[in-house]
Each structure stands twice: as structure tokens, then as C-alpha cells.
Amino acid sequence: MQKLYKTYSDFLSEHFSGKIQKIAVNMGMSCPNRDGTIGKGGCTYCNNLSFVPEYCRPDLTVAEQLEQGKLFFGRKYPQMRYLAYFQAYSNTYAPLEVLKKHYEEALMVDKIVGLVIATRPDCVSEELLDYLGELSQRCFVMVEYGVESCTDRTLKRINRGHDFACSVKAIKCTAKRKIHVGVHLILGLPGESRKEMLNQADEISALPVDVVKLHQLQILKGTRMEKDYQESSSDFHLFSPEEYARLVVEFLQKLRSGIAVERFTNQSPPHLLATEGWGLKNHEFVHILIRVANESQGS
Ligand code: SF4
What we know:
This protein is of the alpha/beta class. The protein has one domain (6-298): pyruvate-formate lyase- activating enzyme, CATH 3.80.30. The protein is 37% helix and 16% strand. An eight-stranded parallel beta sheet has the order 1-8-7-6-5-4-3-2. Helix 7 packs parallel to helix 9 and helix 9 packs across helix 10 (282-296). The longest helix has 15 residues, at 282-296. It is globular and about 50 Å long.
């Protein structure tokens, strides 16, 4: 049977031998869509508390955070090597000299073999990409863009502060410098049809993207989306795991086979969720996905 998708491990094994783990670090950055530079209040679904691991404390230096992460992961696999994952908020939103200091501090830490930098597509300059392009000649560098949707109507509705053309430009400018490109998409954003969600697989496949992260829409407490949901819940369709798995199977059938999928779900802590969560880890969802894919092939 043909493989359902290229895994993130498949992708990493093209670049490294041995086990690689990402360690999230928090530089205490802000976000231009929160501080008024681009917008105020942020994306309507955003509650950054939901994606910062507990060990990730901006009061510690980047090196200290990485050492803590290494202690956490290294017990089980002493030979493990790591990628520093600049995850929370927009990790390119600072003067270049400040960013360089943080990135290079990470690379000085023993067993850190590369960087993964999460950011917004409207938050990268040519100057920064030139620097990351040079850096990627000596270590692994990936920029992970929050694209979230390929539909401008949706991007406006969720107050992203950029359009899809902006994502396309950032992805192309990044890949042109031989920097790896990751893309984050949310499936199930309000007002989006199933067809529009699936079309995104074609849009992304046409771009020089290496890795995609998908996740189901979750509505978090204290967000603007929570209010939107309370006012007009009929605009939202919150998937069951089975339904979402069926959508993802179709998405994968359309996605270019060379693009790896790093994850399919995100499970925010239950106390942050405004609606009922699935209580499923990504690997548990993958079991459902494989079963649904097999059923759809009649095997
Ligand atoms: S760009 Fe990221 S950090 Fe900024 S408001 Fe949107 S989701 Fe939150």
C-alpha cells in the first residue's frame, strides 16, 4: 500500500543520522499583531499560553532553557541531538542584532544542531533571510510560517493582519536562500467550506514547502474567537476526530508527496479550552487517521 504521507522523521532522516528532538525556547518576544504595529488584540484564536511548554521560561537565557530541555529529553536517549525551537509569539520580531545573539547562543549549546524559527510571514526582512541563508550553510535552519489559511476572507475574519500573497512571498524568498520552510495551517476556521480547506493542499503543494503542520480548530478561553463562537456558533463547525480524520485523508491525497507532515492535531490544556476537547495526543490521532484511510481504501 502506498504510504499515506511523508513523516517528519522521514524528513529529519534526510538531514541527520540518529535521533533528533526539538526543544522549545521562549525569547520573550512580542507579536506585531498584538502590540499595535500591525494590529491590536492578535489573531482571534490566539492564546499563547496554550503553546508554551512549562519548562520554557523567558526569565532564563536561551542556553539555560535549552539545557533544561536537554535534561528532560536526554534521560531516555543520551545520544539525542536537538534543534532549538523558537516557538512562542513571533521569533523574528526584533532587531537583527538581537535575533542573531539569541540564535547563535542556541547554536553554542552542546548537541544543538540547528534552529527552527516560528514566525509570521510579514515579519521577515531580506536582511534577516540573507543572514539565515548564510547560517543554513553551516547548520540546519527552518523557518516555520504561520500561514493558517490560504483564503484571504478567512485571514481577514481571524484578524491575521496579512493576506495569503504575503505568505507566498515569504515562503519563496526563504526557500530561494536554501532555508527549510515549514507551514502551519488550521483546518476548520469559521466560514471556510470543506472545499476551501482541501484546496489549501493544492496551494501549499505548489510552493517550495518542506514541512506542514496541521491542526484542528480549538476555541480557547479568553480569546476573541470565544466571543464570536458564543455570538454565532452556527458559523463554526468543530470536527469530531473521525470527521477531521476523513478531511485530513483527503488533504493528504492532494498534498505533494515530498512535503512532510509534522503533526495533525494540537491538544491545548483542558483548562484553556472553551469547548470540549478531544483529549487525544497527536500519535493517538494518527491511529484514527490510518484506520480511516484504510477504511476509505476498502482494506
Ligand atoms: S501572530 Fe501568533 S502570536 Fe501573534 S496574535 Fe497571531 S497567533 Fe498570536
